[in-house]
Amino acid sequence: METKMSFRLPLILATALAAWSAAATAETIKIGVTPGPHAQIFEAVKPIAAKQGLDIQLIEFSDYVVPNAALDAGEIQANSFQNQPYLDNQKADRGYKIESVGLTVNFPIGVYSKKHKAFADIPEGGKVSIPNDPTNGGRVLLLLRDKGVIKLKDGTGFKPTVLDVTENPKKLKFIEVDAAQAPRALDDVDAAAINTNYATQAGLDPVKDPILREDPKGPYVNLIAVRAADKDKPWVKILVDSYHTPEVKEFVLTKFKGAVLPSW
User: Fold this and answer.
1) How high is the mean pLDDT of the chain?
2) N or C: more exposed end of the chain, with fewer CB within 10 A?
3) Could you tell me the pTM of the whole model?
4) In angstroms, how far is the first alpha carbon of the chain from the final one?
């Protein structure tokens, strides 16, 4: 017994030392996410990244404005919550030097109602809330245009506003609200456009509950963003590669059952 233990002890010590060394040399980064799917997906990414020496700490933000400000200020090293049109708009408005380094998932936006079972049931002059940021508000207007509810000016691109509505046969009243507050608006409007992450937080089913739902197309795939100065650092590749794994894809498909779609 003593002889066996004498051989095993150095092996145990060596294994423990290797584990300690890996932990000691692990690089820690803070990633900003919004609550719900983005945070849940990154919980699945964390152990994969940890095996590659990257320790991920998640910082949750309750809105869409602060994560880019925090990233630009260096308070976090990356964020995962936005699509390219939104990032482009933030960079143009605020001068952020932030870049996309990898695609993540798509969240088809939906229009929900507590009062009507179909969008056609909304009466003339009905109130419809839309997100008050140009990108997500524009998504909803494009959705309504594609469904034949309204018409928009030609050449509005991906960010039309209510001022670009040229025909509105039902004289719908568009109420602009902060995206995070959209679920609360449901009681006060005929219908509310709600981003998937906020819909799931509010207990809504983004596949079954919407009375209108965006087709999973266009530029609205979400992304991982970092500061431009960091985009070529080794940890960025580890981060993106850890996200773009079969294990994470399977997690997304199983967990969200079509409400969130892998886009890599």
Assistant:
1) 91
2) N
3) 0.75
4) 54
